[in-house]
Design goal:
The chain is mostly helical. It has 15 helices and twelve strands.
Length: 502
């Protein structure tokens, strides 16, 4: 077999993994030793038969044995929940007593990756291409030699369980388990990210989407309901002018341009009309505080439900393990193992939810003030230079695409639920609900039905509110109903209707 040698590029990738601070006798050529070890492993020969160009055979053997022991220690540490490899972007190592080296957040990368993962899980970023543009918009985020963030790198960040506080190494037989480090996101959010990745195909990045035309794709033509596109036009003087237009061939407004300053100026006026008054915010804050407390109490009750679900999952896992051990067919045993892995992941999610039940991420005042800053003045976020902020305004303020007419401007938009609720509170378009039951507090009129079948409607719930009827009138009404029931084709009085008064 011919000799094997690592290339310069391959060894440069391995160099950071090798120790650089050596005491005593200096290290031999690491590239030569590693190449010799790989040559012996590939050839399947004995260590004493290694070519002399790799140096002493004893050195090759001792180095291999030490590395094998290191690998075993790394696997043992991984099974305990520690990450023994190079820290991923967003983390760095710190030494703690009783733990050794432990992963901790590395700012500002940790906050950037956390925002990207939470944004993709919540739908703020619809595709991986939007996550890629979000990373590239941060000057501190690392890039390749071309100044770009690779699509593969984005996918690795979205699919790495380390950011959810988990560790795993399938090739070493280490299944998914809770890590000793704190995750940037919770495991439930990570599962949402994986569900979105499996349910939606990858969309490549479009170079024509930029901050120059933030309304592209969010505004449609009023004549054909197709999204407007946008482009730059250069005049005879060399100046550039931005325009929005419709390119639908069947549309009467095809090719008729709309000045960018005109449509975006009207959009800013539309946002200013959504602003809520400070007095209305006080009422809304009181309503939300009541709802916050109600949800907090309900969350404490949900913890018991999660604990029971975890116990049921443990029982199911134990039952499947017994079946997998007793199974003689390999395919059946593999099916049991896949089901056990799925239950283990489900149990991790339940345990995380049980621990977080009733524990808000931030205090109510901080969460409410952050939300009200947008509700009070959504145009402030729109004035940001970042495309992601402008897209966030459109998604939070409006529930559907905006319709724009060249002659009349924006049509009445369909706002989100928050702004619809504030509009209803401002205009007084609401009424108080009944204090008890589902029955109205007024006396119902006589209800007649033409069918010969007796009504199955039960009497009203609040019997105490009904007007008392004398015994004589009750006997008369009962006689009238009996007479009507005996005659064929007669119209019946509904049993649930109150008696008529004369």
């Amino acid at each position: 077999m011919s000799e094997f040698w690592l290339s310069e590029a391959q060894f440069e990738r391995l160099r950071p993994l090798l120790p650089d601070k050596v005491r005593g006798v200096g290290r031999v050529d690491d590239r030569r030793v590693i190449s010799g070890i790989i040559h012996v492993l590939k050839s399947g020969g004995r260590w004493v038969d290694a070519p002399t160009c790799y140096g002493p055979r004893k050195t090759l053997y001792n180095r291999f044995v030490r590395w094998a022991a290191t690998r075993n220690r790394m696997e043992a540490r991984l099974r305990q929940g520690y990450w023994p490899f190079i820290a991923c972007l967003g983390y760095r190592y710190e030494r703690f007593e009783g733990h050794g080296k432990l992963l901790v957040r590395d700012e500002p990368f940790a906050s950037i990756i956390q925002e990207a993962l939470e944004g993709y899980a919540s739908g703020r970023f619809q595709t991986q291409a939007e996550v890629k543009r979000f990373f590239e918009a941060r000057p501190e985020f690392p890039r390749n030699a071309k100044g770009e963030v690779r699509n593969q790198y984005v996918n690795e960040i979205l699919t790495h369980p380390l950011y959810a506080g988990m560790v795993q190494r399938p090739e070493w037989g280490v299944s998914l388990r809770k890590g000793k480090h704190d995750g940037l996101i919770d495991f439930a959010t990570f599962e949402k990210v994986q569900a979105r990745l499996k349910g939606r195909a990858y969309a490549p990045a479009r170079p024509d989407i930029s901050a120059d035309f933030p309304l592209r794709g969010a505004v449609c033509c009023a004549d054909c309901e197709r999204p407007l596109t946008a482009s730059w036009s250069r005049s005879k003087t060399g100046d550039r002018h931005g325009y929005y237009m419709c390119f639908n061939r069947a549309c009467v407004s095809r090719g008729k341009s709309i000045r960018r300053a005109e449509i975006e100026g009207q959009f800013e006026q539309l946002l200013e009309g959504l602003e809520a008054s400070p007095s209305l915010v006080k009422i809304v804050k009181a309503m939300f505080r009541d709802g916050w407390e109600l949800q907090r109490k309900q969350a404490h009750k949900s913890a018991a439900v999660f604990r029971r679900a975890i116990e049921a999952a443990d029982e199911e896992i134990a039952r499947l393990v017994n079946r997998a051990v007793a199974a003689t067919n390999e395919s059946v045993a593999a099916a049991y193992e896949r089901r056990i892995d799925a239950l283990e992941r489900e149990k991790l999610v339940l345990a995380e939810r049980c621990g977080n039940s009733g524990q808000p991420v931030r205090p109510f005042d901080e969460m409410f003030e952050l939300a009200m800053q947008f509700v009070l003045k959504p145009s402030n976020l729109w004035k940001s230079e970042r495309l992601e902020d402008k897209q966030t305004v459109i998604k939070l303020a409006f529930a559907d695409r905006l319709s724009y007419s060249r002659n009349r401007g924006f049509r009445t938009p369909k706002t989100s639920k928050v702004f619809r609720m504030l509009e209803a509170a401002k205009t007084g378009n609401f009424r108080m609900a009944e204090r008890e039951g589902f029955e109205p507090s007024i006396q119902l009129p006589v209800c007649r039905i033409s069918s010969a079948v007796l009504s199955t409607t039960q009497p009203p719930l609040r019997r105490g509110n009904r007007i008392p009827v004398p015994v004589r009138d009750r006997m008369r009404i009962a006689g009238e109903r009996a007479a009507l029931a005996s005659s064929s084709g007669a119209r019946k009085l509904c049993p649930c209707a109150p008696p008529q008064t004369h």
